[in-house]
Hints:
Helix content is 0%, strand content 56%. It has 78 residues and is mainly beta. A 5-stranded antiparallel sheet has the order 1-2-3-4-5, with no helix packed on it.
Amino acid sequence: xxxxxxxxxxxxxxxxxxxxxxxxxxxxxxxxxxxxxxxxxxxxxxxxxxxxxxxxxxxxxxxxxxxxxxxxxxxxxx
Length: 78
């Protein structure tokens, strides 16, 4: 059987790092930084501050959504 995979990160351990602008949107920025061995992983999630909708998720490290090698990943939500 195939299980559904979320396209949204688990933000349980993310910290609010401030308000900002992404494209034309006012956003709330949430971030998680972890270290695995000698690799630093930085995950940043942008949420529309007006609607609460997810807009953008950037992963510099291991892919926290689908799992993969260390790289830079970007997900834009429509």
